[in-house]
Write a structure and sequence with these properties.
The chain is α/β, with parallel strands linked by helices. The protein has six helices and seven strands.
């Protein structure tokens, strides 16, 4: 098992710190445009020992992206999975849809620098990839950077805390 799929947590326990791990899991979904990369990216995650819940689409037949973005966002929102991966042509529609959910911070990434920043500065928990504008290899690289990059906190935490509407 690779370390990339495990998060380490130190929990205070009296005079001691308890060392715990949480396995990273992903909810994956996308529309018909995203279907072209979905199985390769799911396999990429599984090859790292990461558990995946596949919410579709399951073919190249035309579908409505919200039908797949909502279940992915709900899975992350409810804590059933750690992160979400949404795939569509431009990734804008799935990002907009996922961000309607409280507690979801979906970021659109088209290169590794942006993938790092959506984690570092925005604590994104859903990555949205525009499959019509990036190669499969770039998509894998973005996904890996997203997994490996921690949230910086600090001044960014104050900003992230202002995102949610009450």
């Amino acid at each position: 098992m690779l370390l990339a799929n495990v998060r380490f947590i130190l929990v205070p326990l009296g005079k001691f710190l308890l060392f715990m791990t949480n396995k990273i899991t992903f909810a994956v979904g996308g529309d018909h445009a995203g279907f072209a990369y979905k199985f390769d990216l799911i396999q990429y995650l599984k090859d790292q020992g990461i558990d995946v819940k596949d919410f579709g689409a399951y073919s190249l037949d035309s579908v409505d992206y919200p039908d797949f973005a909502h279940p992915v966002a709900e899975s992350v929102e409810k804590g059933e999975t750690t992160f979400g991966l949404l795939l569509c042509g431009s990734a804008n529609g799935v990002a907009i849809t996922a961000n309607k959910h409280q507690g979801i911070r979906a970021g659109l990434a088209w290169n590794t620098e942006v993938a790092a920043l959506i984690r570092q500065h925005n604590d994104a928990n859903v990555i949205c990839l525009p499959v019509r504008f990036i190669s499969l290899e770039e998509a894998k690289a973005c996904l890996q950077v997203f997994i490996d990059t921690p949230f910086e906190g600090g001044r960014h935490l104050d900003r992230v805390n202002k995102i949610t509407c009450n």
